């Protein structure tokens, strides 16, 4: 098993606390001959690909026929090597695709990987997860292992799987085995591949945990067992809440650096030389993606219903939510400094996906930035070769610029810089707002 030291700021006692980790060591050969992955999005598809094997049948189940067609034709947001491996697996039959829920009944293991977003009021939207779990429960049979990976509030595994299965007369821990194992997929980051990323498993019973770990271990070299699904559920929330608080702090330090005329990237890198007690993040135009802007609200919602206030988390999420507005404000300030009326000014947003190297627009700060500038009457466009067309929250469809010229824009906002893309044209723009803080190829750039 790969060794992974604990990432804890506990005054050097990580090695002592590591003894509390319960590493799963299989006692017997794998017995899961067939696995169905429910949901083939950013988590489900890589999960299915990681599980594929010549000796076990893996089926990806999704209710969207359009999604299945996109997977078959390779029109998915995966690195080139993974797309080729996916195509080879489909051709060899190692991975099959289906929108027929009856495939669930024949599986030895079922892994639920559906999205868990929040609504406009920042409350959990469990529609997809509830529907998926209801389908899984309806087709469940004795001997199955059912694993939930979708990030959600504490108690969901018990509420949506354990209790409904019991109502069907299936004894969890004896007839079926249920566990929660949070996904740890980092899209676009080749340093964090699934095989080398440890996973946590919390079972409804000890035997549930062990059976689920047998399945999860097919995707990673390191599996750690915790005492319950609830512990595993809160573990995932804690991981992403930590990132949210850390990113909010990084943005505040960047604001402090602006007042003190210092470079926040240099300060962060210097602080990062300390080998203990510090884990830095870089500032930016906001926080996007499927996890950090959403997951903390699952805990905030749950604790709020129980009357508990957690002000650090609340303030961090408020700070994150306000960050795109700061970008809009800075654009207006830069136009004002140039004595340009912002009404009708031409502004280009460079890069609109939430993260470099991915074609994922979910919760991207670029969306409220584009909308906010449009509301001010600014003629705003965008450039992102990975996303040629996008749609704003109000339904406005935008088509990206194909070959921008810097001199054509009053302000260029560097939002997301994709690897392998040439942004040298930005040097010709008279005003550049570098929301990444890292594009020093433009000497006259400004930062937030």
TrEMBL record:
It comes from the Bacteria. The keyword NAD applies. Keywords: NAD, Oxidoreductase. GO terms for molecular function: NAD binding; oxidoreductase activity, acting on the CH-CH group of donors, NAD or NADP as acceptor; oxidoreductase activity, acting on the CH-OH group of donors, NAD or NADP as acceptor. Residues 348-441 form the UDP-glucose/GDP-mannose dehydrogenase C-terminal domain. GO terms for biological process: polysaccharide biosynthetic process. Pfam families: UDPG_MGDP_dh (PF00984), UDPG_MGDP_dh_C (PF03720), UDPG_MGDP_dh_N (PF03721). Belongs to the UDP-glucose/GDP-mannose dehydrogenase family. This is Nucleotide sugar dehydrogenase. It comes from Saccharopolyspora phatthalungensis.
